[in-house]
Amino acid sequence: MSAKNPTVAGIVKNYLVAHGFDGLWNFDSECACKVDNLFPCESEGVERCEAGHLQPCCHDGEHDWDIGRRAAEPAEDRAANGEKACRLHGLGA
Predict the structure, then answer these.
(1) What are the pLDDT digits (tens) for 59-85?
(2) pLDDT(90) > 50
(3) Within a 10 A sphere around the Cβ of 2, how many other Cβ atoms?
(4) How far apart, in whole angstroms, are the C-alpha atoms of residue 82 and residue 36?
(5) SS3 of 15, please?
(6) What is the DSSP string of 27-68?
(7) In a domain, 90, yes or no
(8) Residue 26 lies in a domain
(9) I need a labelling partner for 13 at 20 to 30 A (CA). Which of 6, 23, 73, 93 fits?
(10) Distances (CA, A) of 31 to 14, 17, 54, 81
């Protein structure tokens, strides 16, 4: 990526870092990725990903992180606010 002709991934990463986000997440696809490993899934629907904040994962110990709309808040609170308790991301470390 050059400064004169950045990639979409580069533009997104720069925005996320500049605004204090930790990565992307997608409520519909149960997917999340950290800023240092954006778009590992290369799946359809990435255009619906949202900027989000790193938080502990509550899903059966399979993953140790999650990305969600608000910075680290308990899973019960996220669920009460209409978010799934944890996305089954699994892509990217």
Answers:
(1) 556 667 777 776 655 555 555 555 544
(2) no
(3) 7
(4) 27
(5) helix
(6) TTTTEEEEGGG-SSS--TTGGG-EEEEEE---STTT-S-EEE
(7) no
(8) yes
(9) 73
(10) 21, 19, 13, 18
pLDDT per residue over 25-69, tens digit each? 887 777 888 999 888 877 677 778 889 888 877 655 666 777 777
pTM of this prediction?
Answer: 0.64
Domain that holds residue 13: 8-80
Name the nearest CA neighbour of 34 among 53, 7, 18.
53
Q: Cα separation of 54 and 65, whole Å? A: 7
**Residue 1 domain-assigned (yes or no):** no
Give CA–CA dist 80/93, Å, rounded: 27
The Cα–Cα gap between 86 and 84 comes to 5
- What is the count of structural domains for the chain? 1
pLDDT band at 8 (very low <50, low <70, confident <90, very high): confident
Structure-token pair, residue 67: 């990305």
